[in-house]
Specification:
Blueprint: H1 2-11, E1 19-22, E2 44-49, H2 56-59, E3 67-75, H3 76-81, H4 83-96, E4 102-107, E5 121-124, E6 127-130, E7 133-139, E8 143-150, E9 154-167, E10 170-176, E11 179-180, H5 181-192, E12 201-207, E13 210-214, E14 216-219, E15 224-228, E16 240-245, H6 248-264, E17 270-277, E18 281-288, E19 290-296, E20 303-304, E21 318-319, H7 323-328, E22 333-338, E23 341-346, E24 349-354, E25 357-364
Parallel strand pairs: 3-4, 19-22
Antiparallel strand pairs: 1-5, 2-7, 3-7, 4-23, 5-6, 8-25, 9-10, 9-16, 10-11, 10-15, 12-13, 12-16, 14-15, 17-18, 19-25, 20-21, 23-24
């Protein structure tokens, strides 16, 4: 991946800024290189890891263009073992970037199983980040950004919890409505989610008027569940929570509608041009005043028949373009990745939530 990135940097003469990552399992049968190019004359990029978030004074400094967006990538292993610390850093960054939309995702390890290295890879200009959590604050006075988020929110049932606070934001749930927690969750899943079930169950906790879906792990022997609370979110013994799930079909429809409405706010100006590409005959290229970036749940990567889509790769299984491309791809240049969890804003705070989708639109002001 580093060699491919170096070749892309060479092709661009090292001018401007480049942000990207190496990802896998985007389409079965082989990978492909995706490039989204744009011209932002006054673009500046602040790059840092999540354990060194700059001060509010630095992020709002004079003499630089205003921040219009923040992109974040987090290594999957870091997210698994240091979720509370990462949420703390993201929350601090959001508080210092007022009215700046967040977009990002959790990156899977790149490479074959059993390889010497098993880290995710993110790139910013000439820097390579392996197994890290990186934030890029994008600055320009010529661009404005907005984002829409989809997270698991389909209510299945409510339950009263019997729990123990284990410290460090970790909660041990022993009973739900008086029943052993693991058995109650199994019964809820079998009752409300049909088989085959691509959906996942979450514990929904109210916070600042919004519902935050929390993942949990179970211990079948002790019949208990464990979950980790984000900073500022609380659960007490006897509280009632909402059990929610995702639904790929409904999430797809909601994503498409929200992205189309979001693009309308930017009043895009666009034109399609037909160009000749070596070994590919004629091809349509879109030039637009807007760009769209997505970090999506892989279940939204919808399979299609071979005659429904033109793809790169030699796999027998083909997939349709991502939702953002199918929704606004004729008006707006798009790109992005599928990843196991996404950075979404709930109650004006960034959270890493699986089975979600994050779609960001950049629009030129002038």
């Amino acid at each position: 991946p580093e060699m491919v990135w170096g070749m892309l940097r060479t092709a661009s003469d090292g001018k401007g800024h480049m942000i990207g990552s190496a990802v896998n399992r985007q389409r079965f049968g082989g990978g492909y290189i995706q490039v989204l190019a744009g011209c932002i004359p006054d673009l500046e990029v602040d790059v840092f890891t999540m354990d060194s978030v700059p001060s509010k004074e630095y992020l709002s400094r004079e003499g630089s263009p205003q921040a219009f967006a923040c992109l974040t990538t987090v290594d999957a292993m870091l997210a698994r073992h240091h979720e509370a610390a990462l949420h703390h850093h993201m929350k601090a960054l959001k508080e210092r970037l007022v009215n700046v939309p967040f977009s990002g995702g959790v990156l899977q390890p790149v490479g074959k199983k059993g390889a010497a290295t098993n880290d995710s890879i993110a790139f910013v200009d000439d820097r390579v980040f392996r197994g890290s959590a990186v934030a890029c604050v994008l600055r320009s006075n010529l661009v404005k950004a907005s984002a829409t988020y989809t997270s698991p929110s389909i209510e299945l049932a409510r339950g009263k919890l019997t729990l123990t606070d284990m410290g460090n934001n970790e909660i041990l749930i022993t009973k739900i409505d008086g029943k052993p927690a693991a058995s109650a969750i199994k019964e809820l899943f079998e009752t409300h989610i049909p088989d085959p079930n691509p959906s996942k169950l979450f514990i929904g906790v109210q916070h600042k008027g919004s519902l935050i879906p929390l993942s949990f792990t179970g211990n079948p022997e002790e019949e208990t569940l464990k979950t980790l609370l984000p900073e500022g979110v609380s659960l007490k013994d006897g509280d009632t929570v909402v059990f929610v799930c995702d639904d790929p079909l409904l999430d797809t429809e909601f994503c498409a509608g929200s992205v189309m409405k979001d693009l309308e706010k930017h009043s895009p100006v666009y034109v399609e041009k037909s160009v000749t590409v070596a070994r590919e005959a004629r091809k349509f290229v879109l030039a637009s005043s807007c760009a769209g970036i997505h970090f999506s749940n892989s279940l939204l990567n919808v399979p299609v028949r071979r005659d429904d889509v033109l793809t790169i790769g030699a796999g027998a299984q083909l997939f349709a373009p991502p939702i953002i491309s199918r929704s606004v791809g004729r008006q707006c240049a798009t790109g992005g990745i599928y990843c196991p969890a996404q950075v979404v804003e709930i109650a004006s705070e960034p959270h890493m939530v699986p089975r979600s989708a994050n779609n960001m639109i950049w629009g030129g002001i002038e």
